[in-house]
Amino acid sequence: MLKPLGDRLVIELVEQEEKTASGIVLPDSAKEKPQEGKVVAAGSGRVTDNGERVALEVKEGDNIIFSKYSGTEVKYEGKEYLVLRESDVLAVIG
Amino acid sequence: MLKPLGDRLVIELVEQEEKTASGIVLPDSAKEKPQEGKVVAAGSGRVTDNGERVALEVKEGDNIIFSKYSGTEVKYEGKEYLVLRESDVLAVIG
Amino acid sequence: MLKPLGDRLVIELVEQEEKTASGIVLPDSAKEKPQEGKVVAAGSGRVTDNGERVALEVKEGDNIIFSKYSGTEVKYEGKEYLVLRESDVLAVIG
Amino acid sequence: MLKPLGDRLVIELVEQEEKTASGIVLPDSAKEKPQEGKVVAAGSGRVTDNGERVALEVKEGDNIIFSKYSGTEVKYEGKEYLVLRESDVLAVIG
Amino acid sequence: MLKPLGDRLVIELVEQEEKTASGIVLPDSAKEKPQEGKVVAAGSGRVTDNGERVALEVKEGDNIIFSKYSGTEVKYEGKEYLVLRESDVLAVIG
Amino acid sequence: MLKPLGDRLVIELVEQEEKTASGIVLPDSAKEKPQEGKVVAAGSGRVTDNGERVALEVKEGDNIIFSKYSGTEVKYEGKEYLVLRESDVLAVIG
Amino acid sequence: MLKPLGDRLVIELVEQEEKTASGIVLPDSAKEKPQEGKVVAAGSGRVTDNGERVALEVKEGDNIIFSKYSGTEVKYEGKEYLVLRESDVLAVIG
Q1: How far is G56 from A56, CA to CA, in rounded Å?
Q2: Each residue's pLDDT tens digit, G2-50
Q3: Reduced to 3 states, what is the DSSP secondary structure of residue B86?
Q4: Of D27, D45, G37, G52, which is most buried, counting CB atoms within 10 Å of its CB?
C-alpha cells in the first residue's frame, strides 16, 4: 500500500473517453487539461507555519478532477497511480 | 455536481455580445480580458497559515467578472464550466 | 453596480490634460506613468495570514493617484472603469 | 495635498551638486545611485500578516537618502514629487 | 553515522529492476522519475515560522518513494546514500 | 550623521592589502568577494510579520566581514560609506 | 576570531582524498558536490517571523557535510574558512 505524506494524494486514473459515464468531457485544445481520478489514499494534511496540521478536504474514495500535468506517476504492484497535492485538485465530483 | 475545493469556484460562462443584457462590454484590445460568469458552486474557503479557514465572499448564484486567462475549463454532463480561484474574481455584479 | 472583492477598488478614470483642475501633470517620459481616478466602490479589505480582515484606507469618493499599468479595464452599463488593488494606489489627493 | 498610503512616502527632491550643502556627494559610477530628498508626507505604516499596523520610522520633514530608481514620479500643483516605500530609504540624515 | 538536520533524511537506495520485489515499476519515460529507498536516518524536523519544531512523518526503516532528481548523493564508509528533504518524499510503502 | 533604517547598517570601508593588520586576506578569484568594514551606525532592527522589532546583533564599532556586491555606496561630508542590511554581514571580527 | 551572525557557521575545510579517514568519498560526477568540514564557530540562530530565535542544531566542533557551492570563502589570520548557513548543512557526521 502507498501512504502519501502531508497534503499528497494517491490517485487511480479513470480511463477517459470522448464522453465518460459520469459525463466529463475534456477539451483537447485546453492548455492545462483536467483529468478524472479516484482517491485511493490521502495524506494526513499539511502543517501550517503555525505548526497546526490542516486535515484534507478530499478523502479516500472521492472522484476528483485535477490538472493533467500535476503530480508524479508511479507503478505499484502492477498498477499505475498518480501522486499529487490536494492543491492540484480542481473539484470533487459528487 | 462539481464541488470545488478551498478558495475555488465553479463558474458557468455567460455568453458575451458587443453589449450584454447586464451592460458589460469587454474591450478587444485589453491584454487581460475580463469575462462575465455565474457562480454555480463555491469552495469552503482557503486555510490561512494560522490554520483558520476564511469563508469566501462570493456565493452560489453571484454574477461575477473575472480575468479571461485565469482558471481551467472542464466539461461536466455536457456543459462547460470554468474552475477558478476567488482571487481571480475582479468584482461581483449586484 | 460593481462590487470589488477583498483589497480591490473600482475606479472611474479622470480625464487628464497637460495640467488638470486639481493640478496633477503626468510626465510622458515616466516609465510607470501615474494616473488620477475616483474611487466608485471599495472592497471589504484583504484577509491576513492570521485570518483577520484589514479595512482599506481608501474609501468611496476618494481621488487617487495610481500606477498606469496596474489593474484591469472593464466596461459596465456603457462606462469604463478600472479594477485595481489598494496596493497599486500611490496616494490619495486631499 | 498628497497623502501616501501604507508604508509609502511623498518626497520632495533635493537638487544635487557635486557637493551639496549637507555634504552628500553621489558617485556617478554607482550602479544604484542614491539621492537626497525631503519627506513631505508619510503614510500610516504597513500592516503585518498579523494584522497590526507598524508605524513608519521616517517622519515629515526628515531628510533622507534613497536609491535612485525606486519610486514613481508625480507632479502635483506644478511641483515634482516622488512616491516611494519606506523600505527604499537607505538612511535619514540627522 | 550520518545525522541529517531539520527535515532532511538519509536514504539508502533500493536497487531497481523492471519489477522489484515490492512490486514497484518505474516508467522510463516519466520526466520526474520516482525511486525507491530506505530511510536510514531522519532529522529532528523543520522549525515553523512560529518557532515550533514539526516532527517528521517518515521514520527510520521506512521504505519510501521519492522524486529522482531531488536530494544530494554522498558516500560514507564505502556506501552510497542520498540526503533529501521530507517534502521530496511522495509516499511511504507500507 | 547618517542614521540607517530598520536592519540597515552604515559601514566605513577598511582599506585592504594583501594581508591586513587583522589578518584578513581576500582571494581575488572568489566570485562573491568578502570585504572588511567598521560599523559607524546601526538601525533599530527589522520588524517581523508579527509586528515585533528584532534588535540587531551587530553594533556600532564592530568590525565586520560582508559580501562585496551587497549594499549601496554613499558619500557624506566627504567620506565614503556603504549602507547594507545586517543579513549581508557574514561575520563579526572579535 | 570570526563570529558568524544568525544561522551562519564558520567552517574549516577538511582536505579530501579519494577515501578520507572518516570514510567519506565524494563522487566527481555529482552536480552538487558535498564536502566535509569542521565547525569552528556557530551563530546564535535565526529569528523566526514570530520574533523568536531558533538555536542551531550544529555546534562548534561538529564535523559536517555540506553542498560545495554554498557559502563564501574568507581568509583570516592566514587560514581559509567558509561561512555558510545552517540550511546548507546536509548532515552531521557522528
Answers
A1: 32
A2: 999 999 999 998 865 555 556 665 555 444 456 899 999 999 999 887 7
A3: helix
A4: G37
Q: Does residue D25 fall inside a structural domain? A: no
Q: Are D5 and C58 in contact (CB under 8 A)?
A: yes
Looking at the domain assignment, is residue D26 inside a domain?
A: no
A57·B6 Cβ contact <8 A: yes
What CATH number does the domain containing B66 carry?
Answer: 2.30.33.40
pLDDT tens profile C58-81: 999 999 999 878 899 888 888 889
Query: Do the chains contact at C3 and B92, CB–CB below 8 Å?
Result: yes
Which domain covers residue F66, as residue numbers? 8-93
Q: Residue B70 has what DSSP assignment?
A: -
E34 with A72: Cβ contact below 8 A: yes
> And the C-alpha cell for E7?
527535515
| CB-based contact G50 E47, cutoff 8 Å | no
Contact F56, F7 (CB under 8 A): yes
Judge whether E86 is closer than 8 Å to chain A, CB to CB: yes
Q: Give domain status of residue E24, yes or no.
A: no
Burial of B48-78, coded b for 16+ CB within 10 Å and e otherwise, reads bbbebbbebbbeeebbbbbbeebbbbbbbee
Residue A87 forms contact with B (CB below 8 Å): yes
- Among the partner residues A24, A54, A89, nearest to B75 by beta-carbon distance: A24
Domain count, chain E: 1
Whether F1 is covered by a domain: the verdict is: no
